[in-house]
């Protein structure tokens, strides 16, 4: 079972909402739990958790990976998210049980490889999540979305226009595929930003989560 850093609600009460944050390739949960700290004041009744991915990173032993990255081509992304989905689904189920919450009270957030996982697993949950926020990622297997998406939560896409790790055209492609499949998508390219999350992206995430978790 996955595990990672957690933040309890600022309210001091049992969580009424949950945000699960998925880190990128070569990082770990501690790398992104700071997003929860940044959003906590805007979401005082929300618990945050940032699980560590299941595997040690192939190129950085101190980090983790959701799946290996070698060729970085569409087929590799697709094989990776499909293979990693069951362990993420198991973790989501456990966190919902931990807090006695439902998918309707839960949002998924991901960065880079974590965004790939959030988009893949989140669209295939049996019950509809409140929302999915994907930073600097891509949609693996866009040709399968319309057929395989079980529910259609609102989606936020945020991407640096100077990203040289996951090129920004992936945001445009994901937006097109998701909207064609009937999703509500809010899509933002941030000028001057590379592969990362800046204050503008953090604010976009806070506003999105406040809305979908209201």
Descriptive overview:
It is globular, with a radius of gyration of 16 Å. Helix 2 packs across helix 3. The strands form two sheets. A seven-stranded mixed β-sheet has the order 1-3-2-6-7-8-9, with helices on both faces. A two-stranded antiparallel ribbon has the order 4-5. Helices cover 36% and strands 18% of the residues. It has six helices and nine strands, in the order E-E-H-E-E-E-H-E-H-E-H-E-H-E-H. Strand 7, helix 4 and strand 8 form a beta-alpha-beta unit. The longest helix is centred in the middle third of the chain and has 26 residues. With 214 residues, it is an alpha/beta fold. The protein starts with 5 loop residues before the first strand and ends with a helix.
The radius of gyration computed from the alpha-carbon positions, rounded to a whole number of angstroms, is 16 Å
| Unreliable residue stretches | none
Q: What is the arithmetic mean of pLDDT?
A: 96
Largest sheet: 7 strands, mixed
Helix content: 25-40%
Determine the N-to-C terminus distance. 30 Å
Count of helix runs: 6
Q: How many DSSP-defined strands?
A: 9
Strand fraction equals 15-25%
The computed structural class is alpha/beta
Q: Strand-and-helix sequence, N→C?
A: EEHEEEHEHEHEHEH
The largest beta-sheet arranges its strands as: 1-3-2-6-7-8-9
């Amino acid at each position: 079972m996955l595990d990672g850093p957690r933040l309890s609600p600022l309210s001091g009460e049992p969580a009424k909402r949950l945000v699960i944050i998925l880190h990128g390739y070569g990082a770990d949960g501690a790398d992104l739990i700071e997003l929860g700290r940044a959003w906590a004041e805007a979401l005082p009744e929300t618990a945050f958790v940032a699980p560590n991915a299941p595997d040690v990173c192939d190129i950085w032993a101190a980090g983790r990976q959701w799946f290996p990255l070698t060729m970085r081509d569409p087929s590799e992304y697709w094989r990776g998210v499909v293979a990693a989905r069951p362990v993420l689904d198991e973790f989501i189920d456990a966190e919902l049980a931990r807090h006695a919450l439902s998918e309707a009270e839960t949002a998924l957030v991901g960065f880079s490889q974590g965004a790939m996982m959030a988009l893949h697993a989140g669209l295939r949950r049996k019950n509809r999540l409140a929302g999915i926020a994907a930073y600097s990622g891509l949609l693996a297997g866009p040709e399968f979305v319309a057929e395989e998406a079980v529910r259609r939560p609102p989606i936020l896409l945020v991407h640096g226009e100077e990203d040289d790790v996951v090129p920004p055209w992936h945001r445009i492609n994901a937006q097109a595929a998701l909207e064609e499949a009937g999703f509500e998508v809010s899509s933002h390219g941030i000028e001057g930003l590379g592969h990362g999350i800046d204050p503008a992206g953090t604010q976009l995430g806070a506003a999105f989560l406040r809305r979908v978790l209201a």
